[in-house]
Amino acid sequence: MKSMKKHNAYMASIPSKRNDPYAAAAAEVDSPGFLLTTVEKLAGLAQARSMWPVTMGLACCAIEMMQFGGPRHDGARWGMEVFRASPRQADLMIVAGRVPQKLAPVVRQMWDQMPNPKWSIAMGVCASSGGMFNNYAVVQGVDHIIPVDIYIPGCPPRPDMLIDAIFKLRNSEVYKAKMGAHREKEIADNEAAALVAPALIEQKGLMR
Question: Residue 132's pLDDT is what?
Fold first, then answer.
């Protein structure tokens, strides 16, 4: 018994790289991309706390989006009271309502004018899948035009649901966004995956 205690005490006195905080910190510093990773985290923290949505309301869901910026729900609590009138100054597109075929090129142009990094939310069932408008005149889901990060169900969804979606977007996408060459590689990988992914709903209108 005594010999086992001595052996355990001796083994505990040997410094282990796995439990040594200095060794772990040194390994983290020596790893590639240490400084860039730190900058990415700081930039993601700032971007997540000051997202600027673009001013764009397409249908009745826009009323709920306006209520999100009003005094009752007060989007200013999270640094989002500034709805920019120009897409060149915005980093979040909230597609609130149905997207007609004639408006689809305009939505895509606004998305292309937004600087990177940028994110999008499909607010409501019409923006997510076409909703009740199952016809040739309405795009059956805005993800046929732009990449969508968060889908919000409902007709129309309440401002509380929009707040929840924004928080999930902040914690999952915005805070973990990459920068520089890492960001370019991430965008290329996402676009390649989107090209081979099957459409959730094919745009066949009443013929589907």
Answer: 84
How many C-alpha atoms does 69 have within 13 Å on its Cβ side? 16
Q: Is residue 113 within 8 Å of residue 156, measured between CB atoms?
A: no
**First vs last C-alpha separation in the chain:** 78
pTM of the model: 0.68
Residue type, 121: I
Structure tokens at 87: 């897409």
Residue 147 has which token pair? 């990449």
CA 45 and chain centroid, separation: 13
Distances (CA, A) of 193 to 139, 142, 185: 22, 17, 12
pLDDT surpasses 70 at 121:
yes
The whole-angstrom separation of Cα 208 and Cα 205 is 6
For residue 170, give Cα distances in angstroms to 2, 27, 45, 102, 154.
56, 29, 9, 31, 21
List the strands of the sheet with 119-123, edge to edge.
92-96, 119-123, 150-152
